[in-house]
Input
Amino acid sequence: MNNSPGLRIGELQGIPVLLVEAREGRAAVSLFGGQILSYAPAGFDDLLWVSRTTTRPPKAIRGGVPICWPWFAKQGVPPESQQHGIARTAPWTLTRSAIDVNGNVEITLAPNEDSFPAARVEQTVSVGRALRQVLTTTALRPYSLTQAFHTYFRVGDAERIGIEGLDGLTYLDKPSDFSRRVQTEMFRLDGECDRIYLDTQGDFAIHDPVLSRRIRIRAKGSRSLVVWNPNAERIKTFADIPPDGWRSYLCLEVANAGTDTVNLGPGASHRIEQALSAESIR
Output
């Protein structure tokens, strides 16, 4: 760390983190779970949300970008399995850091190999005008997985934002027993939302008139997108989110989930990627 330009040790809400300072952006990354907890491009406030009442390690951190791996929710695993896999509560190690010619800081993280006997996973994070996050899985034997970047985006008021890029897509609606529905207009939050959008491609955006910004999300290696917000009633079941916390965030999760599973042969690899950026709106 002493010889790592653009990096220093710090804390966020009492949680130890790597503070990443690039020419056009800054971020905070916890080695617990390899979890990005903060990202602010130059000229903008934080794009990510962390609950002010979150639990601390060794329990999962509520907010930022939890890594759901090697399964999403409890898809394809026994019901007693840990929610959203084991990567988000595993210790990760910084294995590499560098600054490119544009002043972006890139770091690579990996968990202890003994924790994952069937596959290897590595995360690369690039911080600058955009935040680029890549998760690479390499199978050691035939292996199937689901996964997600469970990103908590900070918003001015969850009921006033719109999501661009979902119109016309089919989704599985968890509150109605995973019934199939079609998005027929721009997404607006109206009550509890827990959906897996299917056959997704490319770009999405959160239009936020309260914070006067648009957050753009570019996805690769993914054919599903999860949208989640518990709203006013369901939020009461979460001890690590304050009662009014649901208004301050919306989860848009670049994922391989639902019908979108990844099947790998021995030695094969898969990359899932997201890039986040922001622009001002009037």
In short: DSSP finds one helix and 22 strands in the chain.
